[in-house]
Amino acid sequence: MIAEADLNSLRFAEQNSADASRLTKGTRTLMATDCTSPEVDSKWKQSFRRRLLAWYAKHERDLPWRKSQDPYRVWVSEVMLQQTQVETVKPYFQRFLKAFPTVKNLAAAEESQVLRLWEGLGYYRRARGLHAAAKQIVAEHGGQFPQDVVTMQSLPGIGRYTAGAIASIAFNQREPILEANTIRLLARLLAYPDDPTKSAGQRLLWATAEEILPSTNVSRFNQALMELGSLVCTPTQPKCEECPVSRHCGAYQNGLQDELPRAAAKLKFTDVHEAAVVVRKNGQVIVRQCGTGERWAGLWDFPRFAIESEGPLFVEEELIKKVCQQTGVTAKPGALLTTMKHGVTRYRITLDCYSAQFVSGRLKRHTRWIRPAELADLPLSTTGRKLANRIEKSVSKN
Predict the structure, then answer these.
(1) How far separated are the first and last CA of the chain, in Å rounded?
(2) Could you tell me the pTM of the whole model?
């Protein structure tokens, strides 16, 4: 536990603080000099907790992962909710738990089955991490989810936040959490003037998240923090008039709720031109499993690669060459089927999808022929699934 005096000394960084080494225990200096931050003393904490929990008792959403405190359910939901909205996660969570109701069921599953149920959520390393961690829990802990946060963090895909969420929500342990909603909420409460995602901000917010925890009822308290951030303390146009803790909020008291937290530098996107090729032979198409280090490792896809050429003739030559490099076969490119535009992390991708006819060659390892109807059983990327659906529809019409 960080002492209250030490926490207050942490709360203010030196002018233009950039990392944790610039935090001082002396007088606090705000980058916004006309802004004052609340003193988080015992009275403040008691009032904050009481008002927050009273609000949560009235506004708690009925979410499928809140039906029990089973650590497995909490874990799956927290991983799914990383960088994904609640409404998107709901049906995925329900399908996933129906297929894998226990950690032992998940551990025994084939990776392709796990990825197929994850399809569309993106960030597939989360699914692979869940699967690998489930195997480790079964092998090393007899299928019982560990309760110690240090042990949790030794599992694949579980970091400090996820471990804290599981420990506090499932086991009611006094562990702090810090994710997108609570980062925004705490930064506004403290009127923190710098980027809260930098190391100085993270150190301060983790310390604050720990300091404000109650001694009991931690599970509901941490869920209430996330709920308030999600429903009221929103990224834009926060509903401060509806907020139960606005009187405790430094940003609101200083009229800075629309300016804080300070935004991180905008991500610069890179435009990329790619091609996907549907190679056909005797009513079958070629698919390949993406390897380690590729964008969708473990998923299946049509031959896909970056296109550097311009002009129909040069593009055709590049398609022939790169299909052969990926699959081992020579194919004759045909018509452009469709063009899709989508984004992946910092890339804005234009994907041209072509048909092609098999000419010669033998398939490489992790590449195979498949009938269009069988595509439904394979885990594909979002664009791969759209292309597969197009192929299946065209087959059904013939």
Answers:
(1) 69
(2) 0.85
